[in-house]
Design a protein that fits this description.
Elements lengths: L1 H13 L4 H4 L10 H16 L7 H7 L13 H22 L2 H8 L2 H18 L14 H12 L6 E3 L7 E3 L3 E6 L5 H14 L3 E6 L4 H16 L2 E5 L2 E5 L3 H6 L6 H10 L8 E6 L10 H11 L3 E5 L16 H17 L2 E7 L28 H5 L2 E8 L4 E9 L7 E7 L4 E4 L13
Parallel strand pairs: 3-9, 3-10, 4-7, 4-8, 8-9
Antiparallel strand pairs: 1-2, 5-6, 10-11, 11-12, 12-13
Helix pairs in contact: 1-3, 1-5, 9-10, 13-14
């Protein structure tokens, strides 16, 4: 392909080997044996000579058949675009000629094939893009900064959703948040509370419930919202408090005692209590399939989503392990999830497990609540690194208590802990006020 030859000669004439990386020209863009040999030689020479490209005389001495083309006047950007255009077309030809396209078409279910084809095309787009600008320039991009400042001033660029827990503070659009804790310690319940709270503030929320059925998730949502509204009263540890519909009765379809009609009226008027909306994609939906980042992005765009919960992260369909390292598929997925979150300007909360650690007990024999350590993040450590905030969780329904902690905060707050009254069966999950007087009347 002639344009690759021109580009390589321009690099040699200018002595600037960094142009290869600057314009995203890599080894896969070399489509003849001679071009590939020249490319490799330039790379090796530059590594040993502080980024300097070899002279045409040196290349001619080392590479048999090298054709020197002096004074290439076309711009690097023009040549790079021609090279990438050819590479994109060649990738499609190669997959067709290899028989892989036909094999996958015949062997895969339609949905799986569509996902493969979309990912294949996306990979080509990414690999054949041309970079012509690096980042944001402090001197040259002042107007860009001021435009973004005005957008933020008007609330058009990013959104902030308050958390129910002071330790978390706010969820800011474009950021990935990681929630983790041991199995069965309330991660889903406590995270769902914040998702519902965001919807009450006007957010469109998407719940990817990969372990629960849709009915169970809806029970939790309706119980929580009704608890906020105080549709009934309960007495707990000698204290009367507002509560919601009983979740256990809802699950088995036996509210009874006049509560059933009250519940029907409540759900038919749910618009009064949620300014935004909540969409649940559960494990038992009719269109259930293993969720991928591609289906997630499509759902976000289709429903204009602001706030996403992935419960749990490790049930997503992982991206290909391009690094060929152990755990690289999960790490690659976490990285792409973070990039997608920023690009789409949503809040994403990814739930994962922590390693199990033995907890101590109090003098009364109850289990002491303990937040997991940062190193306890399970499944993939990439979720720790990619998260703007790492949120640790523990709870004990027998005590009616939970704790939510900021284990890593890019903008501060690390080490903050919220003590939470935890009675999810009655839709009561709220942070306790600090101080001894806050617990007065409770027999903990």
């Amino acid at each position: 392909m002639h344009y690759a030859k021109l580009f390589l000669n321009k690099v040699i004439d200018s002595g600037d080997a960094s142009a290869l990386a600057r314009y995203n020209i890599d080894f896969q863009d070399m489509h003849t044996d001679n071009d590939r040999r020249i490319y490799r030689f330039i790379e090796q020479y530059a590594e040993q000579n502080n980024g300097q490209a070899p002279s045409y005389a040196t290349v001619a001495a080392e590479i048999e058949g090298y054709e020197y083309i002096p004074d290439v006047s076309d711009s690097y950007e023009y040549l790079a675009r021609q090279i990438k255009d050819y590479s994109a077309k060649q990738a499609i030809i190669d997959v067709h000629n290899s028989g892989e396209f036909e094999r996958r078409l015949n062997e895969m279910p339609a949905t799986e094939f569509n996902n493969w084809l979309t990912n294949f095309v996306d990979d080509i787009k990414m690999r054949t893009s041309v970079r012509n600008k690096t980042g944001t320039d402090v001197k040259k991009d002042i107007d860009k900064f001021l435009d973004e400042y005005e957008r933020r001033k008007l609330g058009k660029s990013f959104k902030v959703w308050k958390s129910k827990y002071s330790a978390v503070g706010n969820y800011i659009s474009g950021n990935l948040y990681t929630v983790y804790g041991e199995s069965g310690r309330g991660k889903s319940v406590l995270t769902l509370e914040d998702a519902i709270y965001a919807a009450q503030q006007g957010a469109n929320v998407l719940i990817y419930a990969e372990e629960m059925g849709w009915f169970e998730v809806m029970v939790r949502i309706y119980t929580s919202i009704s608890g906020d509204q105080g549709v009934t009263r309960i007495t707990y540890e000698g204290v009367d408090m507002d509560a919601g519909f009983d979740a256990n009765s809802l699950r088995i379809g036996k509210l009874g005692d006049g509560f059933e009609q009250a519940f029907r009226d409540f759900v038919r008027n749910i618009d009064k209590y949620i300014a935004g909306n909540i969409i649940v994609r559960a494990v038992d939906d009719e269109d259930a399939e293993r969720k991928s980042l591609r289906t997630l992005e499509a759902d976000i765009k289709q429903h204009d989503i602001d706030f996403v919960v992935i419960d749990p992260f490790y049930y997503l369909e992982y991206e290909r392990n391009t690094s060929r390292t152990t755990g690289g598929d999960a790490a690659n997925t976490s990285n792409k999830l973070r990039l997608m979150t920023g690009r789409l300007g949503v809040v994403t909360v990814a739930i994962t497990q922590s390693d199990v650690k033995k907890s101590g007990t109090s003098d009364e024999g109850t289990r002491e609540l303990r937040l997991p350590e940062r190193e306890d993040v399970k499944k993939t450590k990439a979720l720790l690194e990619d998260a703007a905030v790492l949120i640790g969780i523990d709870s004990d329904y027998k005590q009616g208590l939970a704790i939510v902690g900021n284990m890593k905060g890019r903008d501060g707050g690390e080490g903050d802990v919220s003590n939470v009254l935890y009675l999810p069966q009655y839709g009561i999950i709220k942070e306790l006020e600090t101080g001894e007087e806050a617990l007065e009347g409770f027999d903990f």
